[in-house]
Amino acid sequence: MNRLRLGVNIDHVATLRNARGSPYPDPLRAAQASIAAGADIVTAHLREDRRHIRDEDIAAITGAGLPLNLEMGATEEMLEIALGAKPRACCLVPERREEVTTEHGLDAAGLHNRLAPYVRLLGAAVRVSLFIDADAAQIEAARALGVPDIELHTGAYAEAVLKGDKEEIGDRLEALRKGARKAASLGLDVHAGHGLTYDNVGAIAAIPEVVELQIGHFLVGEAVFSGLETAIRLMRMRMDEARRGS
Questions:
Q1: Residues near 99 by beta carbon (within 8 Å), at least 6 away in sequence
Q2: Residue 234 to residues 6, 34, 113: CA-CA distances in angstroms?
Q3: Percent of the chain residues past pLDDT 90, beyond the cut
Q4: CB neighbour class for 159 (10 Å; exposed up to 12, middle 13-18, buried from 19)
Q5: Can you give the residue range of the structural domain that contains 68?
């Protein structure tokens, strides 16, 4: 079996901490627990407004020697932070201050000239990916920019599952499968994430070209009831079962 990697996003541990202005729950502790439970990498999105993860969280995670995937907007501020922190990987994502969560993929095709210097400078120090929709033009643009990895946005598929719209679920899944095949054919490593849960992860985990899933909000929510490590282990089991059956 081609083992599927798991990245656990700990942003919403910080969201809970920040709600009361307390020092707990500690994102570093969540990062350590995630790796102990079987995650391959920890993901954190350092937003411009610092609504959840903060600079000191990034420093604590990298200082502890944990593998970090830093999600970030393509800005000079974030570039400087990333080059200083030297995480395991960086994922460039679209970011709007007014959004609740990331709503769509990065427009790699339309923003090629703006993104190119960030990809070049980051790529000299860390492994870079782009969070994009499963669209042929965006995948080709990512390849043209020279990134080794992409992360396909699974949010629309997750929303279709919540609505129970079987036709839309099928359409969204087919787009993701087709996008993953195209990306792999271009030599890109394919990651996927956004809105994944125990109930919908199987179909994504079964896509053979996908090598890594990024899951966060659901796992932090489940941790309220079962504990973070238990939630991650169960997700790991669901992913492995789907991969074996594909």
A1: none
A2: 12, 12, 42
A3: 93
A4: middle
A5: 5-245
The CATH number of whichever domain residue 113 belongs to comes to: 3.20.20.70
Told to judge if 194 belongs to the known catalytic residues of this protein, a careful annotator would answer yes
Q: Which of 52, 153, 191, 194 is catalytic?
A: 194
Catalytic residue among 52, 71, 153, 222: 71
Over residues 212-235, the mean pLDDT reads 98
Q: What is the pLDDT of residue 102?
A: 53
Under a CB-based contact definition with an 8 Å cutoff, are residues 85 and 58 in contact?
A: yes
pLDDT digits (tens, 9 = 90+) for 65-94: 999 999 999 999 999 999 999 999 999 999
Q: What is the rounded distance in angstroms from the CA atom of residue 234 to the CA atom of residue 137? A: 35
Any catalytic annotation for residue 45?
Answer: yes
**pTM value surpassing 0.70:** yes
Q: Is residue 80 flagged as an active site residue?
A: no
CA–CA separation, 242 and 183 (whole Å): 21
Query: Distance between CA atoms of 70 and 19, rounded to whole angstroms?
Result: 22
Among 45, 52, 153, 191, the one annotated catalytic: 45
- In this structure, what DSSP letter does residue 199 have? T
At 104, is the pLDDT very low, low, confident or very high (cuts 50, 70, 90)? Answer: confident
pLDDT at residue 99 above 90? no
- In total, how many domains does the chain have? 1
In 3D, which of 177, 172, 176, 151 has the Cα closest to residue 161? 172
- Taken in order 172, 214, 238, 27, the sign of the CA dihedral is negative
Mean local confidence (pLDDT), 214-232: 98
